Amino acid sequence: MPAIVVEGLERAFDDVLAVQGVDLEVDEGEIYGFLGPNGAGKTTTVRMLTTLLLPGGGRAAVAGHDVVHEARAVRASIGVALQEAALDPLMTGRELIRLQATLHGIPNAEGKRRASDLLERVDLAAAADRRVGTYSGGMQRRLDLAAALVHEPRVLFLDEPTTGLDPVSRKTIWEEVRALNDEGTTVFLTTQYLEEADRLADNVGIIDRGTIVAEGTPESLKADIGSPHVQLQLAEGSIAEAEDLCGQIGRLLPPADARTVLVEVENGAADIPRVVRALDEAGIEVASLELVKPTLDDVFVAKTGHHLEQEDPGTEEQERAGA
Amino acid sequence: MSTATGALSLNLRVVHSLGMRSIRQTFRRPQLMAPIVLIPTLLLAIQTGGAGSAVNLPGFPPVQSFLQFMLAGAMMQALMLAGNSGGIAMAVDIEMGFTDRLFAAPISRFTVVLGRLAGTAALGLFSALWFLAIGLAFGAKIESGVAGALIAIVLVTASALAVGGIGAAIALRTGTASVVQGLFPLIFVVLFLSSSFFPQELMIEPAKTIAAYNPVSFIVDGIRGPMISGIAGSDLLAAVLAIGALIALGLWASARALRHRLRVG
Predict the structure, then answer these.
(1) Does residue B96 sit at the A interface (CB-CB below 8 Å)?
(2) What is the value of pTM for the model shown?
(3) How many domains would you assign to chain B?
(4) Does B260 touch chain A (CB under 8 A)?
(5) What is the span of the domain harbouring residue A246?
(6) Of B24, B96, B105, the CB nearest to A86
(7) Does A102 contact B13 at a Cβ distance shorter than 8 Å?
(8) For chain B, how big is the Rg over CA atoms in Å?
(9) What is the largest CA-CA distance in chain A?
């Protein structure tokens, strides 16, 4: 049974359609990356799936329960870490996790034990009894993640878990998400970071203006828009001859300038030795050589006609909707 | 344990935990604590120090001292500000997304409101004890003894819950701390247009008529009666009815505002 099934999900704020007919399916044990720019409809979708917002149309089921008619059963099955870690700065880390345990009906003694274990797991044991207001952004995100795990949820929703974090903190969160997934937790992750979706997600749904424009594994999405290409910058020798030689190995692409050759290669890195050998034998000196692979941004551009921008995450689609 | 009993037990635990969080939050944030203790205590000191001879005015009820008369007013002021502070804290929770954390849990969402109200009621209890202690320390006598003190404590605690319900409703409806904070001056208008700080008999119109119908007057008279004279059944009943009506209004308005908030997200 899929962990998440969404059919024709819709939601409007006043006259603005924030989510319009989203369909998706997430298998048990999968990491699903929901990728899109600010205002695309990611957070609105997550809020509907986590029962925090009623859908305007369509239906959705999480962990086998309908998000409208079996909302409490959905909430018992999910862990949620929403955008910008909603934490009380006056509570300590331990108090927050123990409160979260109580909210999920975990007995006091067990809640106490799990709080200690989770704080240890996210490397916050030393700061457990400090007020959250004294934590760094990375520590707050790790605490938020730990709180979402206290009841061992089947499905974990992470709404932009690394937005605004430094690279080291981001990597720590990625490692933790990967470890959780290895333990069997299904993860629904929204992000505006291409690298995050690429590195973590088994499947990616790209959303733009409230609609899913592409879905698949990161590899299949990138493969759909073309093979990798070799980009050569010539130091010495004839550009025409270089193009002629490269054209025998792969398909030539329009170059960016007069000293550059672009050639699409079917086998990626495996074709590089052939290119180098051919040019070397012809006495053509190469200043630089790079294998350029399609990125999810290329996919995004191909599907939407614009780049995935990284703006202030605080705005999101509700601002677009004027809500 | 049946499912219903289990759910009730879980929701009671949640109310207790959220109530404890609310109390800790108030004690850890001085700007929430100040209105409950500092402002009413200062006002009590200023009023009793500066207007003590008001007890000699014709028509002033027979009292041992102006402090004895003013204690109920100070308690009323403290509990109303506690209710308002509870509303502000709830609005801050909404603004920073903390209520989403609570609403994403498998509990009745109204327990989130009840948890906040439990904390506000506890702060009401604290303010009743605080002003009783101050009164006794400075020589005020509780005419009806321990029973009178207990009645005052219960009425103040229940009133704090009632006012907290109204504060929570406004917080849930607006989701904005500054709006709830904006009610601060209105609280003083309501207090001054009641018998909190001055006997109704000595007020001039139209304040006198407004005070006669102001539910705050019924409550404060119910608290004051056992302190300055004895326990009067009619005053007590009026106070209980006023508090009951305000609790019902607060809970009804909170439930409606909660439904609205969940609908609009």
Answers:
(1) yes
(2) 0.81
(3) 1
(4) no
(5) 227-293
(6) B96
(7) yes
(8) 19
(9) 77
Residues 6+ apart with CB under 8 A from A228: A264, A265, A268, A269, A291, A292, A293, A294
Beta carbons of B93 and A88 less than 8 Å apart: yes
CA B142/CA B157 separation, integer angstroms = 18
Report the chain B residue with the minimal C-alpha distance to residue A131: B28
Residues A73 and A205 in one domain: yes
Say if residue A28 is in the same domain as residue A161: yes
State whether A87 and A113 are in the same domain: yes
Give me the residue from B13, B17, B106 closest to A72, CB to CB: B106
Q: Is the domain of A134 the same as that of A278?
A: no
Region of residue A41 (left: phi > 0; alpha: psi -120 to 50; beta: else): left
Q: If you write DSSP's letter for every residue of A149-207 in order, what string do you get? A: TTT--SEEEEESTTTT--HHHHHHHHHHHHHHHHTT-EEEEEES-HHHHHHH-SEEEEE
- Looking at the fold, whether A136 and A170 belong to one and the same domain comes out as yes
Q: Which amino acid is at A110?
A: E
Q: CATH number of the domain that A272 lies in?
A: 3.30.70.100
CATH number, residue A141: 3.40.50.300
Count of beta carbons in the 10 Å neighbourhood of residue B201: 13
User: Are A82 and B98 in contact (CB < 8 Å)?
Assistant: no
Looking at the complex, does the CB of residue A88 fall below 8 Å from at least one CB of chain B? yes
Domain presence at residue A306: no
Is B98 within 8 Å of chain A by CB? yes
**Residue B123 within any structural domain of the chain:** yes
Tokens of A47: 């809020």
Residues of A in contact with B18 (CB under 8 A): 99
Interface of A with B in 140-179 (CB under 8 A): 147
**Total count of domains within chain A:** 2
CA distance A233 to chain B (A): 52
As a whole number, mean pLDDT of residues A300-321 equals 56
Q: How many helices and strands in chain B, by DSSP H and E?
A: 12, 0
- Do A158 and A283 belong to one domain? no
In this structure, the answer to whether residues A195 and A264 fall within a common structural domain is no
Does ipTM top 0.90? no
Mutation target to probe the A interface, by most A beta carbons within 10 A, among B101, B108, B114, B261 is B101
Each residue's pLDDT, cut to its tens digit, for chain B (265 residues) gives 567 777 788 889 999 999 999 999 888 888 778 888 888 898 888 888 777 777 777 777 888 888 889 999 999 999 999 999 899 999 999 998 899 999 999 988 899 999 999 999 999 999 999 999 999 998 888 888 899 999 999 999 999 999 999 999 999 999 899 998 888 889 999 999 999 888 888 888 898 899 999 999 999 999 999 888 888 888 899 999 999 999 999 999 999 999 888 877 6
The reply to whether B124 falls in a domain is: yes
Residue A66 lies in a domain: yes
